[in-house]
Amino acid sequence: MKPTNPPQALLRSPIVTVCGHVDHGKTSILDCFRESSLQQGEAGGITQKISFTKYPIEQIKRTCPLIEKQGVTLDIPGFMFIDTPGHAAFTNLRKRGGSLADLAIVVVSIKEGIKPQTAEVLQILKAHKTPFLIALNKIDSISGWQKGEQGVKQAIDRQAVHVRQEFDEALLTFQSSLREHGFDSDLFFDVTDFTKKVALVPCSARTKEGISELLFVLCGLCQRFLRERLTISSEANGVILELKKERGIEWAEAILYDGALKEGSEIIIASFGEPIITKIRVLGEIQSLSTKYTSVKKACAATGIRMQLTEKEGILPGMPFQELSPAVFESKRAQFKKEIASVLQLDKQGLIIKADSLGSLEALITLLKQEHIQIIKAGIGPISKTDIISAKTNLTIDPLNAVILGFNVGFDEKLSVPAMIKVLTNPVVYKLIEDLTLWRRDQQEAIIREKMLGLATICKLEILPQYVFRNSNPAIFGVRVAVGKIKLGIPLIDSKGTSIAHVKSLQHDKSSVNEAKEGQEIALALPGVTFDRQLKETRSLYADLSEVQFKQFKKNKELLSARELQVLEEIAQIKRKVYELWGS
Ligand SMILES: Nc1nc2c(ncn2[C@@H]2O[C@H](COP(=O)(O)OP(=O)(O)OP(=O)(O)O)[C@@H](O)[C@H]2O)c(=O)[nH]1
Ligand SMILES: [Mg+2]
Prior knowledge:
Elements: E1 15-20, H1 26-34, H2 38-41, E2 51-56, H3 57-63, H4 66-69, E3 78-83, E4 94-95, E5 98-99, E6 103-109, H5 116-128, E7 132-137, H6 151-157, H7 161-180, E8 185-187, E9 198-202, H8 211-225, E10 237-246, E11 249-258, E12 260-262, E13 266-269, E14 276-286, E15 293-295, E16 298-300, E17 303-309, E18 320-323, H9 329-343, E19 351-355, H10 358-370, E20 375-380, H11 385-397, E21 403-407, E22 422-426, H12 429-453, E23 459-470, E24 475-487, E25 491-494, E26 499-502, E27 505-508, E28 511-513, E29 515-517, E30 521-526, H13 531-535, E31 540-543, H14 547-555, H15 562-578
Parallel strand pairs: 1-3, 1-6, 6-7, 7-9, 8-9, 19-20, 19-21, 21-22
Antiparallel strand pairs: 2-3, 4-5, 10-11, 10-18, 11-17, 12-16, 13-14, 13-18, 14-15, 14-17, 23-24, 23-31, 24-29, 24-30, 25-26, 25-31, 27-28, 27-30
Bound molecules: guanosine-5'-triphosphate and magnesium ion.
């Protein structure tokens, strides 16, 4: 980090996202940076929403005295830290052509290593080529760890042998799994080229070891990678994060990532339809090291702002906005429409997807497209009645598309989902796609089975002799479905292979049903059968099968349960008592 010389005012604060798996210590590390204790105030200690912290240069120097000690001159006005919830998507932080984050701190608990959310974050950082460092947090949880007084490097060097061994093992395991994700890494003090290796900073938000080093490496990355990216342009650009109501006033919370905005400025916000043109009635900017806003006449990037807008209808989380001057109105409008249209390229058929912001929606669409999964409808917000209606329409066209994916969203209140519609929700995007693939595979199997086997069914019934309701014309008695499924109209045989009758009616809990599943007890009506003459000595009945049906079942063994297979064999043996070569 050499002293450099563009005047400070021209550079904006870099946006630094703090991300990683749930509970690995993101908020706690930020608390160390801020000398605050926001983590303790969180409901259940869990971060629910993205939040930002304006972190001025004075605070960087205060938390990291090394910077001044080593005579490093920083050109930036500070950092803009973004705390993200570990359980939700970091994909919300999108901007045109990339990620909103200039840099990232990936927080990993040293004893837990790479977890699903960490893996997802690494993928996104890689895709966007965002420089990042890794905070290997919770080193104090290594048993016997002694806090050092002169920085974390010295602390590592001075640990007792067995402690050092545990640390080294955790480190090596972590490095090798990081390599599997495509990143070489080293402890920060061993990294000579930050473009080749990811710096690992062992730290503890509890003992505060490594915290100052984290900031030091962050400043290093910033100087190394970001100089050109940080020049402020004349065009104000931002992203809406959330819409909030406070004491009856609606605010749009946003990140201003480039340029400057003024009270009274006119802005254009992208939307699924026509872009929204609106004016900033009141502008608030986040205070340094605080979650409070103050009214300002002007705010400069990168910073957190909130706006009271004249036109609010249709504004959605994740949507980009820009300051608008009348001269560029038409070109901006076309540009925004094009941008949203390029995100939302939908198919003529496909499933329905919902996400909490434009960024998450885009991430989900990209992944689904990679898997060649088609999408007919995409939207922002909770799963609603209209989504269910769209899924119902799909049911008649292709039942595999009668599914709604919710990424980071829940349901509209009081929404009931019909049994034949599947709703899958998951805050981890690739898990969502895994769930979808599994569900589709099961559905596909069920459909093939249904189509191929038609009426045929594998079934073994156990007669319940204590429940004979009627002896004949027709005989009505109780059975338990021991294995498989019984359906109306199925022919039955006994264990000697004698044809008994076709099932005329089935009753379950006093009402007529078309079929009954394994484990259910039902009443069966069989025409032309006299119970005490034909069935008194019989314990089991089987669904009769033709040889062709038997062979079909044999060919698709993988669709059957072990118990069904067993019954299939029993049926074959019964049949072979009559005709030796049956089914072979
Ligand atoms: N022993 C130890 N515990 C820590 C450390 N850092 C955080 N914790 C604890 O780990 C728990 C989770 O910390 P948070 O800071 O809320 O983690 P987070 O990553 O922000 O979690 P989410 O926001 O829910 O994703 C809390 O109980 C912290 O006190 C550390 O360095 N050492
Ligand atoms: Mg948190």
